[in-house]
């Protein structure tokens, strides 16, 4: 697969088949991804990959916490702002309503909205989950490096015929995840990610996210 196809075919997949992913394939993806760049080559990422019993135990514990409304606050890491501006709010709403529309969730249907959110916590049925962490003392630039790394993982996964969904949803459940994966408390969870094979029959995977017009975000100077 060439780079353009890898970029254009990457989408957030929210329904996976049960087909397992071999450890060799995952190792290849992560070995390629290790070439990801970082400021002053600090390589401030860790990737914790889980499948089988460990994956299932995390899913069980986190779903139980989610069901009892026990997500913890992630405010101390200010991953998302406390208050969004209108532009970002409108983009967030659009992707949310486009997804809910596809799966038939009406506005105000809190029960089904929660059930859709809960799908995050079973990795959308993907057999493999990856948790990305960085060292807690590091700053914004290192978080950005982890983001670059995650994108590299997602593109390398496409090269192996795999699909992904990056999942910030997990960050409110850092404690049980760290417990199951023996992650030291000097690290902080940046994001989760589902990895596996796309369920091509699932309606949620027909979601096409839109992008802003180029002229609103690309700013050229000095070309004429
Ligand atoms: C860091 C990050 C975290 C995300 N977290 C979630 C998540 O928790 N749940 C989810 O369903 N999608 C999540 N997404 C997927 C975004 O909604 C998606 O990337 C965006 O709508 C664009 O769609 P696309 O990935 O299909 O191009 C996340 C994406 C990124 C980059």
Report on this model:
With 224 residues, this protein is an alpha+beta fold. It has a domain of 153 residues: NADH Oxidase (3-Layer(aba) Sandwich), CATH 3.40.109. The protein contains seven helices and four strands; from the N terminus they run H-H-E-H-H-H-E-H-E-H-E. Strands 1-2-4-3 form a four-stranded antiparallel beta sheet, sandwiched between helices. Helix 1 packs across helix 6, helix 2 crosses helix 6 and helix 3 runs antiparallel to helix 7. The chain starts with a helix and ends in a 28-residue tail after the last strand. The model has no long low-confidence stretch (mean pLDDT 95). The site of flavin mononucleotide (FMN) has 12 residues, from strand 3.
**Binned strand content:** 5-15%
Summarize the main sheet. 4 strands, antiparallel
Number of strands: 4
Q: What shape does the CA trace take?
A: globular
Could you please say which CATH topology of the domain at 12-82 and 122-203 applies here?
NADH Oxidase
* Second CATH tier, the architecture of the domain at 12-82 and 122-203: 3-Layer(aba) Sandwich
| SS element count, helices | 7
Distance N terminus to C terminus? 36 Å
Question: CATH homologous superfamily name of the domain at 12-82 and 122-203?
Answer: NADH Oxidase
**Poorly predicted ranges:** none
Oligomeric grouping of the chains: single chain
The assigned structural class equals: alpha+beta
Mean pLDDT: 95
Output the strand order for the largest sheet. Answer: 1-2-4-3
Q: How are helices and strands ordered from N to C?
A: HHEHHHEHEHE
Indicate the radius of gyration in whole angstroms: 18 Å
């Amino acid at each position: 697969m060439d780079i353009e196809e890898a970029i254009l075919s990457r989408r957030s997949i929210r329904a996976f088949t049960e087909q397992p992913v071999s450890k060799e394939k995952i190792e290849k993806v992560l070995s390629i991804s290790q070439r990801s760049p970082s400021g002053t080559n600090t390589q401030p990422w860790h990737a914790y990959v889980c499948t089988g019993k460990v994956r299932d135990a995390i899913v069980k514990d986190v779903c139980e916490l989610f069901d009892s409304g026990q997500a913890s606050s992630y405010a101390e890491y200010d991953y998302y702002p406390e208050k969004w501006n209108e532009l970002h709010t409108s983009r967030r709403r659009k992707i949310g309503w486009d997804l809910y529309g596809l799966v038939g969730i009406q506005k105000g249907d809190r029960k089904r909205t929660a059930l859709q959110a809960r799908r995050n916590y079973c990795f959308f049925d993907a057999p493999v989950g990856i948790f990305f962490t960085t060292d807690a003392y590091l700053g914004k630039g290192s978080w950005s490096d982890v983001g670059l790394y995650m994108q590299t993982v997602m593109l390398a996964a496409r090269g192996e015929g795999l699909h992904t969904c990056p999942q910030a949803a997990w960050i409110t459940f850092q404690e049980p995840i760290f417990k199951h994966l023996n992650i030291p408390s000097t690290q902080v969870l940046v994001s989760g990610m589902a990895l596996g094979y796309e369920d091509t029959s699932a309606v949620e995977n027909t979601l096409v996210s839109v992008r802003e017009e180029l002229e609103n975000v690309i700013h050229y100077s000095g070309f004429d």
